[in-house]
Amino acid sequence: MVFLLIWILLILYARYLAPGTGANNPIFPELFNGSIGAIDPLVLAVFNSLGIFPLVFLTLLLLNDKQRWPAWPFALLSFGIGAFSLLPYFAFGIKKSDRKLRTPRWLFRFLRSRFWLIVLIIMWAGNLLTLLQGFSFADYADSFFASSLVSVMTVDWLVLYGLSIYTVHRFYPDARAKGLAWIPIIGPVLVLLRNRPLTERPRSSSGQ
């Protein structure tokens, strides 16, 4: 019920309450023109992180895809619409079931591999380097109130952040160092890396 409420509020915010206008868009024109340097580094980092978050959720959800609803459609849609696609899954689909893991063995092994988890960490670190150009919270606030795109993507980022922490605690209650999940974006990946034995494929699904 909580996730459903958050989903409805997020839709209402994006449609009616987000400050700014879509016309005052500080990202896409510069991206299309190749003028990335003209974008505030913090705005750019948040924008880029919305492409990393779906990879993190794809990893977490497909490693545990034996809930009532299949996770992969919602995880894939999150690359385009972020938390707007994930919240319905958390509201209705993430219920316990007796079914076997849906994720193919080869994909399961890849997603839990050190290689893939380290790739995610490198992507996160590369995006973080964007901030070394210098950034201003005041400039970000100006963009937030001037552009509905920045407003919505900021709230979307916050919802994804909260969902990522919840997902770790939901699927890995016995994990060590779960506090790492609070590190934005990459925290859940660090938890998986620290607790790889917990991500082993269940024996009951070995025949898949």
How do the helices and strands line up, and which of them pair or pack?
Elements: H1 2-17, H2 28-33, H3 41-62, H4 72-81, H5 83-93, H6 105-111, H7 114-128, H8 137-146, H9 148-171, H10 187-194
Helix pairs in contact: 1-5, 1-9, 3-4, 3-7, 3-9, 4-5, 7-10, 8-9
Give a structural overview.
The chain has 208 residues and is mostly helical. It has one domain (2-205). It has helices at 2-17, 28-33, 41-62, 72-81, 83-93, 105-111, 114-128, 137-146, 148-171, 187-194. Helix 1 (2-17) runs antiparallel to helix 5, helix 1 (2-17) runs antiparallel to helix 9 and helix 8 (137-146) crosses helix 9 (148-171). The mean pLDDT is 88.
Describe, in short, the structure shown.
The protein is an all-alpha fold. It has ten helices and no strands. The model has no long low-confidence stretch (mean pLDDT about 90).
Number of strands: 0
**DSSP strand content:** under 5%
Return the string of H and E elements.
HHHHHHHHHH
Please mark out the parts with pLDDT under 50 across 5 or more consecutive residues, or reply none: none
Nearest-angstrom radius of gyration? 18 Å
Task: Tell the overall outline.
Answer: globular
- Give me the number of helical elements: 10
Number of domains: 1
Oligomer: single chain
Class from helix and strand fractions:
mainly alpha
Distance between the termini: 33 Å
